[in-house]
Amino acid sequence: MTGVGDLTILVLIFLSVFLLFALIKIFHKLWWVPTHLQYLMSLQGINCRPYKFIHGNTKEISAMSKESLSRHMGLSHEIFPTLQPHIHCWSNLYGKIYVQWYGPQAQLVILEPELVKELLNNRDKASHKPEVSPYAKKILGDGLTMSQGEKWAKMRKLANFAFHGESLKVSSLDYSQQYFS
């Protein structure tokens, strides 16, 4: 009986240690990282929406979207407050640069055009495209929109050449002679 009892105790110890590590990992991902990131952003002067455990700001965003879509929209071209009410409201509260939360993942919202232009130039490779699920990659293929790095640069160079004005003139002349002659 002592052999079975010792084995049971070992299994229980192993399971409790495994459970403890799993809880620490969950705590780290769902609480420590977001609150620490919120603290670091506030040190840099970037305002943050308060982080809410597990769901972030998604409940607020969905409630604001439902409320704005339920209201009657007047005849105007200003549809941004209706389509993105959370960004419209929070940019008035927190400024043109702030952080919002989709679950435990922070999303930096930048509404200053010059800063967005500087970020999108990406000469120092500071930003990259987000990871895409394998299913979406199968649907979208491995073309210009999905590639990154050197492969993207080569494909972009080919696309620029193919859609250059002179190339289009030559190809349109070829097509017109082929179909209208």
UniProtKB/TrEMBL annotation:
A single cellular component GO annotation: membrane
Name of the protein this chain belongs to: Cytochrome P
Gene Ontology MF annotations: heme binding; iron ion binding; monooxygenase activity; oxidoreductase activity, acting on paired donors, with incorporation or reduction of molecular oxygen
Assigned protein family: Belongs to the cytochrome P450 family.
Listed Pfam families: p450 (PF00067)
Localisation: Membrane
Location (main, coarse): membrane
The organism of origin for this protein: Parasponia andersonii
Keyword Heme appears in the UniProt entry: yes
Membrane topology value: Single-pass membrane protein
Cleaved signal peptide residues: none
Transmembrane segments: 6-27
InterPro entries on file: Cyt_P450 (IPR001128), Cyt_P450_sf (IPR036396), Cytochrome_P450_Monooxygen (IPR050665)
Record's keyword terms, sorted: Heme, Iron, Membrane, Metal-binding, Monooxygenase, Oxidoreductase, Transmembrane, Transmembrane helix
